[in-house]
């Protein structure tokens, strides 16, 4: 379904992100998580694309498996770094002929073994140019073409210290034809609310989906910090984690509680969508849904529906 139709259906959309597994064992584990998350009836799920296209085939395979073996609507991520125009065109053709309706269009970062890579040497230097290429791709059977998502950074993208200029760059992506923005993960809702307000002031009026990632372990926190995603841990969260004395079970409870409170406030404030960075696991997301009062349905097409997760009448 085109993302514009998806986002019009619900007061708050819920969606999940997966990354393509690299081994049969991790694939089995992912599909166990997916079976549990499917019951939460997400509006869509998205599948990441490894740095520089390193998971090109794996991303495609997972997207196709989700499309053919589950009730989920998969949105592939696509990055233009280290790709030429023909490669992008080829990927778009494959997705169009497989009936994929939407793409999350990103510039991406060069892989670590390409430290000298220059973005200006790529066919598309910035994500806005990839959005234009997807918009002008005419192989999609939907008359509106692919629905297109782009990335937004509530705390700022690490490469652009000028926050005003950054919103102008985001507006360029929107003007190029993006249908929605999905944000980088953040832990302080006021950063998101301020970001949304700055977007609206700049004339960006497409839906903005909030990216939420529950902290579930100390190792995960360290990894997040080292990736320099442009998201900081607020002091109250760090203090709560500190009180756990390093127990991973307790850290997961703290992180899940924190993310639940973020979601509760976002929903109460009328957020258009919440996108969960699941890391291919289901427990934290299911716990958050349960605490939010978002009912799950044991039957995908059953009659047990929810208020929050229910298509608008
Ligand atoms: P752009 O929008 O092109 O912006 C990149 C930088 O360039 C920004 O600092 C921007 O301000 C600046 N800029 C933009 N236009 C101009 C201009 N005209 N002149 C000068 N500067 C400009 N990475 C992956 O590899 N795979 C994934 O699957 C993936 N999924 C993601 C999903 C989400 C929701 C998010 C938020 C990020 C994801 N990323 C992924 C990471 C993303 O690729 C990186 O953060 C990347 O550095 C920026 O991508 P972008 O699409 O925002 O780039």
What does this entry look like structurally?
This protein is an alpha/beta fold and 313 residues long. Helices cover 43% and strands 14% of the residues. It has eleven helices and eight strands. Strands 1-2-3-4-5-6-7-8 form an eight-stranded parallel beta barrel, surrounded by five helices. Strand 5, helix 6 and strand 6 form a beta-alpha-beta unit. Helix 5 runs parallel beside helix 6 and helix 10 packs across helix 11. The C terminus is likely disordered. The structure holds flavin-adenine dinucleotide.
Helix content: 40-55%
Describe the global form. globular
Mean pLDDT: 91
Question: How many beta-strand segments?
Answer: 8
Distance linking N and C termini: 18 Å
Q: How many helices does DSSP assign?
A: 11
Write out the strand line-up for the largest beta sheet, numbering strands in chain order.
Answer: 1-2-3-4-5-6-7-8
Work out the radius of gyration.
Answer: 19 Å
Ligands and ions found? flavin-adenine dinucleotide
Approximately what portion of the residues adopt beta-strand conformation? 5-15%
Point out poorly predicted stretches: 297-313
Order of secondary-structure elements: HEHEHEHEHEHEHEHHHEH
Structural class, from helix and strand content?
Answer: alpha/beta
**Mind summarizing the main beta sheet?**
8 strands, parallel, barrel
